[in-house]
Amino acid sequence: MMSYPLLDVRVSTPTLELRAATDDLMDQLAEVVRAGKTHADPAPYDDPMSFYEPDPDLRVAKWLRAIWRGRGKVEPDWWRLYFVVVVNGQPVGMQDLIGVNFATFGTVTSFSWLATDQRGRGLGHEMRAAILHLAFDGLGAKEAGSDAFVDNHGSNAISRNLGYEPNGSDWATRQGEPALLNRWRLTRANWQQRRRNNIHLHNIDACRTYLPLS
């Protein structure tokens, strides 16, 4: 058992696991970050973890610091669970769950990335399905949101296929340039219609103990 039980939380599906982002797992995943396999074209985000830092070692350092900072902030209006995506024992990306005023509204959003050499295999859909199962089944979420730039066809397709509904648009910057976002909303009722019985939650009592869920 970890000294910090949130790092024992895990979600498993037939094709992958989401394992809480321990320092050991992040050390393994750092090689993917160092190799620049986080990049995408078009860019799906505006450098939230300094993935576009050109120096490989500095890129890893900034990425790790961002996770350490986020992992330590657990407040009623904001908390974030970081998971490493593991396929056949190999870390290949991350899938995070973010509580936004969860204690009041029961709302979450998510963030993810996948190594360039692992894309196009349906893993992005499976990762999102796994984190939604944790949110709705494990934590009792009422609603999940997602944003994606309009030209990020992969992320938008995943949201659509998982039952999210369009929820307007917004603007954000992408490497300093304005770009239009699609906003998506998944209600608990819509998730229930697609609920799967082959996604399993492990050690999630830690979430109920250490997160401000109510």
TrEMBL record:
<dbReference type="GO" id="GO:0005737">
    <property type="term" value="C:cytoplasm"/>
</dbReference>
<protein>
    <submittedName>
        <fullName>RimJ/RimL family protein N-acetyltransferase</fullName>
    </submittedName>
</protein>
<dbReference type="InterPro" id="IPR051908">
    <property type="entry name" value="Ribosomal_N-acetyltransferase"/>
</dbReference>
<dbReference type="GO" id="GO:1990189">
    <property type="term" value="F:protein N-terminal-serine acetyltransferase activity"/>
</dbReference>
<keyword id="KW-0808">Transferase</keyword>
<dbReference type="InterPro" id="IPR016181">
    <property type="entry name" value="Acyl_CoA_acyltransferase"/>
</dbReference>
<dbReference type="Pfam" id="PF13302">
    <property type="entry name" value="Acetyltransf_3"/>
</dbReference>
<feature type="domain" description="N-acetyltransferase">
    <location>
        <begin position="16"/>
        <end position="187"/>
    </location>
</feature>
<dbReference type="InterPro" id="IPR000182">
    <property type="entry name" value="GNAT_dom"/>
</dbReference>
<dbReference type="GO" id="GO:0008999">
    <property type="term" value="F:protein-N-terminal-alanine acetyltransferase activity"/>
</dbReference>
